[in-house]
Amino acid sequence: MLAQFSQKIRLFAGLVALAGCVSAAAQTTFPPLAGESPLSGPLPGDQVFPAVAVGTAGGYVVWQDNVTDGDGWGISALRLNNNLSGSQAPFRVNQTGAGNQENPRVGLLPGGGAVVVWQGGALGAQRIFARFLAADGTFASGDLMVNTYTGGEQINPNLAVLADGSVVVVWASSGQDGSLQGVFGQRLSATGAKLGAEFPVNQTTLLNQRTPSVAALSDGGFVVVWISEKRLGLDANSVDAFAIDAMARLYNSTGTATGDEFKLNSSSNACANPAVSAGMTGGFTVVWSQRDAANFETGWDIFTRSFDAVGLAGATDARVNSFTYGDQFSPRIQSVGADRMVVWTSLAQDGSREGVYGRLLDAAGQPSGAEFRVNTTTAGQQMHPAIGSDGVGRFLVVWTSYAADSRFDLFAQRYAISVALPQLPAPMVTALSQSRIAVSWPELAGYDLSGYGVYVDGSATPTLVTSNYHVISGLSAGTTHTVRLDYVLRDGRRPAQSVLATARTWGEDANFDGLPDDWQARYWGSDPTKWPSANEDSDGDGVSNLQEFLAGTDPTDGRSALRTRLADNGQGWRVHWDAQPGFVYLLQASTDLATWTNVGIARFAAGTNDSVLVTPAAGRSFYRIVRVR
User: Fold this and answer.
1) CB–CB of 327/300 below 8 Å?
2) N or C: the chain end with fewer CB closer than 10 Å?
3) Cβ pair 419, 364 in contact under 8 A
4) Rounded to whole angstroms, what are the CA distances from 354 to 89, 95, 319, 487, 585?
5) Residue 492: count of CB within 10 angstroms of its CB
6) What's the CATH number for 428-504?
């Protein structure tokens, strides 16, 4: 069995490239939109190997997280809003927490949903799983096992969403094709149902066929690319010689291969880590890492080649990176119209171990303009880049960055044709009482802000605040109010106002029993004499009617309650709670039950439960869950 080539770290002082505008003569320019920013703020543990999918309305980032599920690696996700900033806190994707869940990929579905795939299970017997999300961000399925064959292990999944809304998932499977690893695929409906049988991709079966990538094509079909190992026989020294090439195969919309597998690279150098992006006219562009066997100092480089809709190459393969000392590896590629952006990890180029670099390709798929550094922070390691495109005018690059306290967090950089200031999404607004409404919104990452403007009920003059939370008070009971947002940069510029959001204050409590009359009427009818008191437990679930009101649960359904518990799972203490899908919650902590502070930011409930790792203060610590929306 051929071992995969390891990457060699070579540190070389003084080699530093400056980040700058991404441009090329006679080509669309994609300048950085604001600056590098943490994707979700500092999180406990390590966040590594991200993947991203975005559209004009936002998208998702997914990654491996060694804290999220309490046992080894799990899969976390963060929903992105229309300006490609994080919306609320990250959430756990995988239902099964035992063992390691790794190598996630994500795709956006027509209508606003999404699908996440990953490998999970015991080492040596991992399987491929998928989970679907609805347009509102809640889970539309549980963990679904994608592969049918369960011998050996199934690893390194990838996916593409096809023009008809179906999903194709590909992966490497051990022993299934009669040799070592082989590439297999499965089509799924937009709800996760299997469409047809699992199918083999590679025709060459001897040795390993591995690390597949897949892209949806404009004609409704798809292309799969992978690495193929072949034995060539004995060389002049009677030593086994091998070829390690990048291969591809084309499929139509029904999952039927339209031809044989074919080689992508024109050289005989070893290849690794292919990635593929579709073009506008039915073709596709592939990037991969390639080893220069004749020059040890250049190591691995990034190469690209473009093909038409039937797999004919437009030109010979070309090296993408211009800095060639050491290793450049693990490329990713996405397209905006006829333009493509390639990103990769480069050793020693930014002066401190790994850095993330990129370059544009022109309409012919050839490198255009200078390569550029993506990460602004250069200390330590910046690696594992992923790239998403909204298909219209923006790229989003996400990567893993070393933090000062010996952990890895995710950072992001946006690139856009237009440098117009992004508009904030509509805020979340919710009633706190008969006279107060709370307004909250995701922070705008990467910009130097003076503050946010909150416009209430059409006012032309905003209330300026420096946080992303504001309480409007002095309102009348049972009244509806509108809120819009904007922000002010330190240079005085402002964007257009956000889409408006509305909220209604609680109705009056005419009988002074501590509960809004309109809420009681919803569950117990319009006759106040039949309304139970606030302290009663009408459904016998151990939670009073007042607590059910505050939690947003149903006081007439014993299965609907906000229950919390604190448990030590070996990684530390976690606060768990039962959630209502679609609600937003905030964890708070106190040492005296009088003063409460927020633990992190608001968390959207994609499913029916959630948890947060906490660090109790010395002495006593108390925790509570507050329903924000």
Assistant:
1) yes
2) N
3) no
4) 28, 33, 19, 35, 37
5) 7
6) 2.60.40.10
Residue 471 and residue 438 in contact, taking contact as beta carbons nearer than 8 Å = yes
In one letter, which amino acid is 447? Y
Are the C-beta atoms of 488 and 494 separated by less than 8 Å? Answer: yes
Q: What is the pLDDT of residue 97?
A: 87
d(CA 259, CA 224): 12
**pTM (2 d.p.):** 0.87
Listed by start position, the domains of the chain span 45-145, 164-230+245-263, 267-419, 428-504, 562-629
Taking only the tens place, the pLDDT of each residue in 318-374 is 999 999 999 999 999 999 999 999 999 999 899 989 999 999 999 899 999 999 999
Separation of first and last alpha carbons in the chain: 55
Residue 229, pLDDT score = 96
Phi, psi of 545 (to 5 degrees): -60, -35
What would the mean pLDDT of 90-111 be, rounded to a whole number?
A: 94
pLDDT at 73 over 60: yes
202 DSSP β-pair partners: none
Q: Which residues have CB under 8 Å from 94's CB, separation 6+? A: 69, 74, 75, 101, 118, 120, 129, 131, 143
User: How far is residue 141's CA from residue 128's CA, in Å, rounded to a whole number?
Assistant: 15
The reported pLDDT for the residue numbered 573 is: 84
Give CA angle at 504 (436, 586), nearest 5°. Answer: 60
* Span 431-439, average pLDDT: 88
CATH node for 267-419: 2.120.10.10
pLDDT at residue 614 above 50? yes
